[in-house]
Design the sequence.
């Protein structure tokens, strides 16, 4: 408002201090002292010029001579003398870029003039401005829809709300096409206000506008505003007994990019209510609801449940031929294939999503396909393919900037850098991702903090780990159903590292439950197993080592990867090697570690290789054959040389004396 003018700054600050008005309020009334200062400048020009400028103020900070002439019903020649006075007095500036374009010299000058208009004058002028803008648009030309909508909205008090409603919807649709989602949502909210005056009993139109506003808020990342709109839409649907509308509201309420995140009870209740009300009718909507439920607890906690729901949804979607249903069902099926057992199917689904997105020219569908490729290729340790998929995700995020997609693309970049071993740079990218997602993407903070915790563990930052893990891991274990497996495994690892053996054993027993073989093979399984292998080795628990070894052995060809965090702890083969150490099977431990190091090398997982080489060195020392001690020392010297460049304090991370290359005594377990 003040544009740096010291007097205006001081006066506005005084008013803000003495009132309850928020500092950012666009409706802040000008203090009288500011009005007086502006008034003295305006006193230098004629009454006719002041009248003209008050009308021009309705058009905004800048205005066009042709439009102003239409607004006041006078010829352009008649206006030039009055405008010349204003130019000479420094109240107006003339554009150098285009003849006939003027601007007020200061926003406060325009606001002062605008506030001098009585309400009936403003309303009439806004209405005439909207009509003039519409009339000035040539056939086939691009009308300034947002300006037209603004003027009609400001004229609402005149009682004719229909033009305001139509203009707001047209402008919202244009804003959506330009990816201006926040502006589009704002315009739909204005359309709802206009509808309340134009047709307050038109429930169908109200539902339509609420759903549209919710979708735009969701795209912009305004999650709570989106949920409020869809909650209101659900109320309209219930009142009219429309299960199809209720289903649409529930789908929007679940939000974009929220598969697997902890839903509030309201989310689950709305999805289930919609499913039950819909029954077997409307196969397209049923397919989409089942797709959402696939990634919603408690259904998401069982891989069998995910399998059944996603297959039913995909069957319905394919039979219907509906693009939206097929997109949702393919994404849900891909999510049902998380974990180590269906990697090949995930890649087939990814290809179909990409092809569907290309065929329908929908970059969001393409993004989900490339996201699926990125995760599957990282799990298999194929960096070139993973990098190609990541590049496509980044490109598509720039083309259709849904807020959660922009967040995810940056988060994926951070995860990929972390996988490659550049941990300091990964931390910087995670900080950027957290800012992109702050207050805009569900659980962005939790996701970034969880990955940061894993990085600090890999770097050996024990002090920072204690601060972060003491709050974060118990929170995840208590609130995020499904993720408690990996959270408890990580807490057990930190406990055993601190010498809290009893707590580590308690957590280990809790995680094991009825046996490692009964654990869900979901997105948490492999990363949790990598943590557990460390805990079991440190505790010397041979019984559990044998059990976990048998459970993990079928996945020796994969990396220990988390499909949501996109974090991994090296190769499954190296975890198997560590378990073999616990069992005293040095030959197998060496073979497993060598295979794991080779896979990590192909994947470019430099930080993970450090850990695998430590395990291999221990296995060599255990075997004690000729040359094993020398080879173990060479491995340890190599770790010591490479660790600093990766930001890893290898001595603290692995418990070695950097001088003697001998293991340091750790807290007794």
Sequence:
């Amino acid at each position: 408002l003040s544009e740096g003018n010291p007097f205006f700054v001081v006066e506005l600050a005084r008013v803000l201090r003495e009132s309850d008005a928020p500092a950012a309020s666009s409706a802040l009334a000008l203090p009288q002292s500011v009005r007086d200062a502006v008034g003295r400048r305006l006193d230098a020009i004629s009454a006719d010029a002041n009248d003209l400028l008050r009308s021009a103020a309705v058009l905004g900070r800048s205005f066009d001579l042709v439009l102003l002439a239409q607004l006041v019903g006078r010829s352009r020649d008649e206006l030039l003398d009055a405008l010349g006075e204003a130019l000479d007095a420094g109240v107006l500036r003339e554009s150098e870029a285009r003849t006939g374009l003027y601007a007020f010299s200061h926003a406060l000058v325009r606001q002062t003039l605008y506030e001098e208009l009585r309400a009936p004058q403003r309303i009439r002028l806004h209405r005439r401005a909207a009509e003039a803008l519409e009339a000035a648009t040539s056939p086939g030309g691009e009308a300034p829809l947002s300006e037209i909508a603004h003027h009609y909205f400001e004229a609402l008090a005149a009682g004719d709300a229909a033009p305001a409603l139509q203009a707001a919807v047209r402008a919202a649709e244009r804003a959506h096409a330009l990816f201006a989602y926040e502006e589009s949502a704002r315009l739909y909210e204005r359309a709802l206000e206009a509808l309340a005056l134009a047709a307050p009993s038109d429930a169908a139109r109200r539902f339509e506008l609420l759903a549209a506003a919710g979708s735009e808020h969701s795209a912009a990342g305004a999650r709570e505003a989106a949920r409020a709109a869809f909650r209101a839409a659900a109320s309209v649907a219930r009142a009219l007994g429309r299960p199809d509308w209720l289903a649409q509201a529930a789908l929007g309420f679940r939000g974009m990019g929220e598969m697997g995140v902890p839903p509030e009870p309201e989310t689950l209740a709305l999805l289930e209510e919609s499913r039950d009300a819909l029954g077997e009718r409307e196969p397209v909507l049923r397919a989409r609801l089942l797709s959402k439920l696939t990634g919603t607890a408690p259904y998401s906690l069982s891989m069998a449940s995910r399998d059944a729901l996603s297959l039913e949804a995909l069957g319905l979607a394919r039979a219907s031929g509906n693009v939206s249903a097929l997109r949702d069902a393919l994404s849900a099926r891909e999510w049902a294939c998380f974990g180590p057992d269906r990697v090949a199917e995930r890649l087939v689904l990814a290809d179909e999503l990409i092809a569907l997105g290309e065929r329908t020219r929908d970059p969001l569908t393409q993004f989900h396909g490339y996201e699926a490729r990125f995760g599957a290729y990282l799990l298999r340790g194929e960096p070139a393919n993973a990098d190609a998929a990541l590049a496509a995700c980044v490109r598509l995020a720039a083309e259709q900037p849904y807020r959660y997609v922009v967040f995810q693309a940056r988060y994926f970049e951070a995860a990929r850098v972390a996988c490659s071993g550049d941990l300091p740079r990964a931390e910087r990218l995670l900080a950027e991702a957290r800012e992109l997602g702050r207050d805009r993407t569900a659980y962005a903070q939790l996701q970034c903090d969880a990955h940061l915790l894993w990085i600090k563990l890999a770097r050996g930052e024990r002090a920072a780990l204690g601060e972060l893990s003491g709050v974060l891991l118990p929170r995840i274990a208590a609130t995020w159903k499904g993720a408690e497996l990996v959270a408890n495994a990580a807490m057990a690892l930190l406990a055993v590292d601190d010498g809290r053996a009893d707590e580590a054993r308690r957590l280990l027993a809790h995680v094991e439950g009825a046996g490692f073989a009964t654990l869900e093979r979901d997105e948490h399984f492999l990363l949790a197993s990598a943590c557990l292998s460390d805990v079991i080795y440190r505790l010397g628990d041979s019984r559990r080592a044998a059990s976990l070894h048998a459970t993990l052995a079928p996945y020796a060809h994969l990396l220990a990867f988390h499909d949501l965090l996109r974090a991994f702890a090296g190769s499954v083969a190296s975890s198997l090697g560590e378990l073999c150490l616990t069992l005293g099977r040095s030959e197998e431990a060496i073979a497993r570690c060598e295979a794991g190091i080779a896979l990590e090398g192909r994947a470019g997982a430099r930080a993970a290789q450090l850990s695998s080489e430590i395990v291999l060195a221990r296995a060599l020392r255990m075997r004690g054959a000729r040359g094993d001690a020398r080879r173990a020392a060479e491995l340890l010297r190599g770790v010591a040389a490479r660790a600093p460049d990766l930001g890893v304090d290898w001595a603290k991370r692995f418990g070695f004396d950097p001088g003697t290359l001998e293991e340091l005594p750790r807290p007794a377990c």
The longest helix spans residues 119-136.
